[in-house]
Amino acid sequence: MSKLLKHIGGDKTLWAMLTLLALFSFLPVYSASSNLANLYGRNTFSLLVKHGVHLVMGFAIIFTVHKIDYNKFKGLSWIMMFIVTILLVFTMAQGTTIGGANASRWLRVPGVGVSFQTSTLAAVVLMVYVARYLAKFKDRAIVFKESFIELWIPVGLILILIFPANLSTAALIFSMVMVLVFLGGYPFKYIGVIIGAGALFVMLFFLSAKAFPEAFPNRVDTWISRVENFSNGEDTEEDYQIERAKTAIASGQLFGLGPGKSVQKNFLPQSSSDFIYAIIVEEWGLVSGVAIVLFYLIVLYRLVIILNKSETVFGKLLVAGVGLPIIFQALINMGVAVELFPVTGQTLPLISSGGTSIWMTCLAFGIILSVSSAQKNVKDKKSLEKDNPLDVLTQAM
């Protein structure tokens, strides 16, 4: 174990929190997966093994990425922006349907039978790209015309490719980009222009989807109805899920019904992913629900520590850019379960089942730990230089 720890760099507390979240996830996933097992005639244990494989692969991603010098992500972001754009175009163009519903958010890897959600990869890559751009202008004024071409056209292209099939992810990415450019010192008046342009685009898209519904993927109808029904208070299938989730939370009371004793997992269609927080509270009680929130807040605290310790603007922006979306995603997932937000389809990071969400979350944490590892290397280097007897001899001469 000690030999393994020697090869693990970066913030040890963050490593510990990620490990605890991943280990805890086996309990609710195993319990909640019984619904999927019954639906599709599968074995619950096989679903648990699959979740375990996803987590092992995810932590392998963290370990591999955190060994890379984070400054190399500057150049990689250019290449990856080109790659994810092609992937998003191809994903959208394939027009796949699953059970009659649009599934243009997923891309199947030929030969291996594995599907992954291209928008989640695009989200991480885009945040790295934005961080690189903002770091480049740390010592000089930003010209809107120049930034529009180099920054906002790539950002807009990625969002447009994601938006029709995955509103919640596009909205989350846009919000996080706005937060990042604000933290990066981008002029506030320009941010206002971009927000206004984004709002205008969404309004025109809504109107076009209403006027020409046959020209848009059927996924658009789903999220338009979700937003409208959430604001109007009408009963829908999403309301059924929310009511079941709230029933699960209420049933859990303070200490829960006990591991594996959830009743609502048999009625919630996405009990092991989108609504896993409700199952956790039902089985483990309000105490566990509060503990999960605290876990993510501790992760946020460690992100702030790493951000503050970074000696470069790019390092600071990189941690904020790929780290904050994870925390916001967690809060949104938990907020949906208690009806603070409409159903979004966002998973609970490192706890919900699902390969793509786990892998991309781990990719983001690998990047963060790469920044943290660089801080330790700089500290160790300064310590060696300070303790070098040759320096004392040189000063004496």
Q: What would the average pLDDT be, to the nearest integer?
A: 83
Query: Percentage of helical residues?
Result: over 70%
Shape: globular
Global Rg: 23 Å
How many domain units?
1
Structural class: mainly alpha
The total strand number stands at 4
Strand order of the largest sheet: 1-2
Largest sheet: 2 strands, antiparallel
Helix-strand topology string: HHHHEEEEHHHHHHHHHH
Distance between the termini: 46 Å
Beta-strand content bin: under 5%
Low-pLDDT parts are: 96-103, 392-397
What's the number of helices? 14
Describe the structure.
With about 400 residues, the chain is mainly α. The chain has one domain (about 1-385). The protein is about 75% helix and about 5% strand. The protein is built from 14 helices and four strands. It has helices at about 1-5, 10-40, 45-65, 70-95, 120-135, 145-160, 165-185, 190-210, 220-230, 235-250, 275-310, 315-335, 355-385, 390-395, and strands spanning about 95-100, 100, 105-110, 115. A two-stranded antiparallel ribbon has the order 1-2. It has a two-stranded antiparallel sheet with strand order 3-4. Helix 2 (about 10-40) packs antiparallel against helix 11 (about 275-310). The longest helix is centred in the C-terminal third of the chain and has 34 residues, at about 275-310. It is globular, with a radius of gyration of 23 Å. It starts with a helix and ends with a helix. The model is unreliable at about 95-105 and about 390-395 (pLDDT under 50).
